[in-house]
Amino acid sequence: MNSSSSKLDNATLSLFKNVNTSIAISVIYIVITLMNLMGNGLSMWLLLFRTSPKTPSIIFMINLTLTDLALGTALPFQIAYQLLGYNWNLGPNMCSFLTMMFFTNMYCSILTMMAIGIDRYLGIVRPLLFRETRERKSLAIISCLFMWGLVLSVLYPLMTTDLTFDIPELGITTCFDVLKKNMLPSQSAWVAFLFCTCFVLFFFPFCITTFCYIRVIKQLGSDSKTAQKARAIRLAFIVLMVFTLCFAPNNIILLAHTIMRIFFKKSLYTAYKLTLCFSCLNSCLDPFIYYFASKDFRQKLRQIMNWRSLSSTESKMEHREVLFSMQSGL
């Protein structure tokens, strides 16, 4: 992404001319799209039709799966755009719509994983508070609506701006790869936009999520529920891996690139483009979160896949967690 009004820097132009990079990114997107649609299609079916009751945790997972599937339907357009040499021919409205889907997935995923982490924290570390303050499914549904509202309000400039950019020297029209500096009215507006995307929608949720899972692991460490503790550790590892591998590089590079571009006329565009590509990997890893976060999802998936039944030791552990699972949806 370049905040530019007229002339592009050499790093951006060289990337547009680099066919090998374009093909490599397209291949990654193709693999992600296939894994996304298969994994999240199965997950959505299990969550909607095979998992009951619809606890708050399940509602959060449905919300996360919905955002992942939205990304899966948008990626084929990005693949075509890449293979056409960064030439967008579907018009500015479609460009803005698909860009919104792209980034809504990222930030709604971050907020939803934070909500799942808070849900587990309340269920395991603060069970009394959890029972007193939670009002069944309504709070989870309101939370999901709030997440979407927050993300869409922060990303509102993307909906109201023409994100296409003509590059006559290359004979192409880009989509979101070059942003006009006047997309926002002032430099302070750019600072506010960056603060909201990088800190409000990423860094703050990352800190909250990390805190919740550390406390959950510490709490389970004092109990004898070895199987539950092992799953909690694996879940925490996957969630934090998604944050550090998928979300952190892109948001850090986005912040650094935009600051360098606005204030120093330099670019980290190639690095940003690659980290944006890998940020989509979260949609492939989310089904693993469901597997370790939901006992009901885990059992239904085992039945569908005809996996061998649980060992006797793990079965006893699962049985001991039934009451807690019914209360907290974990």
UniProtKB/TrEMBL annotation:
Query: How does the UniProt record describe the way this protein sits in the membrane?
Result: Multi-pass membrane protein
GO BP annotations of the record are: blood coagulation; phospholipase C-activating G protein-coupled receptor signaling pathway; positive regulation of Rho protein signal transduction
GO MF annotations for this entry? thrombin-activated receptor activity
Q: Which Gene3D superfamilies match?
A: Rhodopsin 7-helix transmembrane proteins
Q: Which GO terms describe its cellular component?
A: plasma membrane
* Localization per Swiss-Prot or TrEMBL: Cell membrane
Residues crossing the lipid bilayer are: 23-48, 60-84, 96-118, 139-159, 189-214, 235-259, 271-293
Key words, A-Z: Cell membrane, Disulfide bond, G-protein coupled receptor, Glycoprotein, Membrane, Receptor, Transducer, Transmembrane, Transmembrane helix
The primary site where this protein sits is membrane
Q: Which Pfam families match?
A: 7tm_1
| Start and end residues of each G-protein coupled receptors family 1 profile domain | 39-290
Family in the record: Belongs to the G-protein coupled receptor 1 family.
Descriptive protein name: P2Y receptor family member 8
